[in-house]
Amino acid sequence: MINDVSKIITNVRTTTPLIHAITNYVTINDCANILLSYGASPAMAEAYDETYDFASISSALYINIGTLTKEQEQAIIMAVISAKNYNVPVVLDPVACGAIKRKMDVINRIFQLGKVDIIKGNLGEIKYLAGYESKSRGVDSIDDGNNSVEACESLALKYNCTVIATGAEDIVTDGKRTAIIKNGTKLLTLITGAGCMVGALTAATAAAEKDKFIAGIASVLAMNLAGEHAEKLTKAPGSFRVKLIDEIYNLKEEDFLKEGKVTWL
Amino acid sequence: MINDVSKIITNVRTTTPLIHAITNYVTINDCANILLSYGASPAMAEAYDETYDFASISSALYINIGTLTKEQEQAIIMAVISAKNYNVPVVLDPVACGAIKRKMDVINRIFQLGKVDIIKGNLGEIKYLAGYESKSRGVDSIDDGNNSVEACESLALKYNCTVIATGAEDIVTDGKRTAIIKNGTKLLTLITGAGCMVGALTAATAAAEKDKFIAGIASVLAMNLAGEHAEKLTKAPGSFRVKLIDEIYNLKEEDFLKEGKVTWL
Amino acid sequence: MINDVSKIITNVRTTTPLIHAITNYVTINDCANILLSYGASPAMAEAYDETYDFASISSALYINIGTLTKEQEQAIIMAVISAKNYNVPVVLDPVACGAIKRKMDVINRIFQLGKVDIIKGNLGEIKYLAGYESKSRGVDSIDDGNNSVEACESLALKYNCTVIATGAEDIVTDGKRTAIIKNGTKLLTLITGAGCMVGALTAATAAAEKDKFIAGIASVLAMNLAGEHAEKLTKAPGSFRVKLIDEIYNLKEEDFLKEGKVTWL
């Protein structure tokens, strides 16, 4: 399995998938830059008049609902309908779904009209979506981690998709297969956008790999390993953010094989 | 007094206030990252459908009118009404209020329907709001500094709030007490967003400290000291911006006591 | 000629032109920071209620249609009308014009109601606008370069403006005079926004120099030289992006004279 995971970065660099991202204004630049460093080609079309057309020619679609203006909501709905019609993989990042009521209205509409291949959230968001008791504060999870795996698997089965829950340990599951990833660094919580960047990378891996469970592990592991490498160079968040992009660019297949701490449940 | 100022950074790091920021798209990422480095938890909800709910659960609200789309205007009005109803401290950054007529329309509406605890602008903006002759160019102040303290005090008394005017020297006043801060570096004018970041930090200090005059000094001083520390590491603006975030993270209580150049009028 | 090109950076630093930029949310921060590093004063007013007024007081206007929300479209139309009425130079960046049908609708409206002094695009975009066969993918050109100079000259004559086409080699032409610039580094394609930043810088040079052909060469060369200087310091994209801003700040007139590889056709 880890062999399949490790090969994806080469697949992405060889095929340069076109990633259509509709994402929040806070970290939109980070998402574009990390996709470029990873070897993908980002495009952030978000106008209502453009997303149906643009999603149809994309290799994968990343939807992040962090700063959800009215036009973004409309543009997202058009994009997910297009992705369904044109069979484009979709990654959904349900930012703050448990903190703000309106987020769930939009998420429900996405599931009603589109098709989601991977849901990537923090643990609080994933448990909330799965209908489990969860704790969030603003856009952050402060969940204690009870029943985490169970919640992820239940959500994966509910929507017939892969689920990624990020946290101190990361969980990836398609409901039947489950992996726990123990790499990473606390520095990733000291910059904004680590979660968004994982989501964007997941769209790239989903474009390059049919098995979305494997794709999900590959993106989470890429971020965690790059974070560990960057942490060796600096402990301060401003510099860490810069080095993180560098280290995504420097990742090699063997890093995944040698350093990946993946437990297969 | 300086003892009270110095303690705020520890208070923020201990309590991790949730800062709701509605801000311009130019420096929204910088504002989020500097809040994280300072120890606060940023959330940039700006959709009209979300800001009333989100402001109500926040520790403080930062309003920056730099890139004021129609939806942002509406979202800001909802947020300030919510902040008033739920007693959430509000920091207003009246970007370019003297340069663009429409900005004053929105600012007047904010004062009509909301409650502002701290106004933080550059000297040109503050003097304009106070009804004094002032000089601005685009988003920058080119004011000569005549009657600066008088203008700040007058504005503070007019709106019963604390006023921060940034410039070569920074002024903080609640109309009765006034402080002049002589720290900082010219490099802060060579990057975009130094003013916005001070505003965001002010929301964090306002969340942690009841006395908004003290809170205002704490945020201005934090930015100035981090700027001085970063300047020791680099003189070029791209690198300076990165180090500035690092040095906010590295700030210690004793830095304020040892290095703060605050004159109490 | 290269003497005229080299002097522009000093002119900008002396006059600090006020650059009004309406640009995409992905790289809006980079555009503002590179303008500051170059010596200009950026202002990113993009609200429909503000752009007519703001364009009228600006030294030059930069229009980038990368993330074209409905309000941005309306704001752009108001800005270009204002620029025409007040004789403010306009630089147009026709991002993805060949990939998304709606972009051309907006571009046609800009030419109908406004006046464009410089069109700056990648080669695929420029050839598409000129009516030549071209190849793009998302926001990137993958054009082979056939008939490039001919296409640029034809477009310049069609709209009576200067045309900049970026690529492995960069072309600048006003239809009668044409220059090929062979500086630069591949690292500029590994970060997002290199093209946008050239566009923003072009607005600064267009504000400082009447001859827009010379202005176009100056901005392209500035970016390429800064890129070469940054590449000497780092090969990784995250760090490169930081150093690029530093090296724009460090550029000297003699760098243009000594290092510029400009072929005058």
Automatic annotation (TrEMBL), chains A, B, C:
NCBIfam families with a match to the protein in the record: PRK09355.1, thiM
EC class name: transferase
Organism this protein belongs to: Clostridium homopropionicum DSM 5847
Substrates-to-products reaction catalysed: 5-(2-hydroxyethyl)-4-methylthiazole + ATP = 4-methyl-5-(2-phosphooxyethyl)-thiazole + ADP + H(+)
Gene name linked to the record: thiM
Molecular functions per Gene Ontology: ATP binding; hydroxyethylthiazole kinase activity; magnesium ion binding
Domain of life: Bacteria
Cofactor(s) essential for the protein: Mg(2+)
Binding positions (ATP): K120, T166
Keyword Metal-binding: yes
Pathway participation: Cofactor biosynthesis; thiamine diphosphate biosynthesis; 4-methyl-5-(2-phosphoethyl)-thiazole from 5-(2-hydroxyethyl)-4-methylthiazole: step 1/1
InterPro entries given in the database record: Hyethyz_kinase (IPR000417), Ribokinase-like (IPR029056)
SUPFAM superfamilies named in the record: Ribokinase-like
Lineage: Bacteria, Bacillati, Bacillota, Clostridia, Eubacteriales
Residue positions binding substrate: M44, G193
Entry's family note: Belongs to the Thz kinase family.
Protein name per its UniProtKB record: Hydroxyethylthiazole kinase
HAMAP family per record: Thz_kinase (MF_00228)
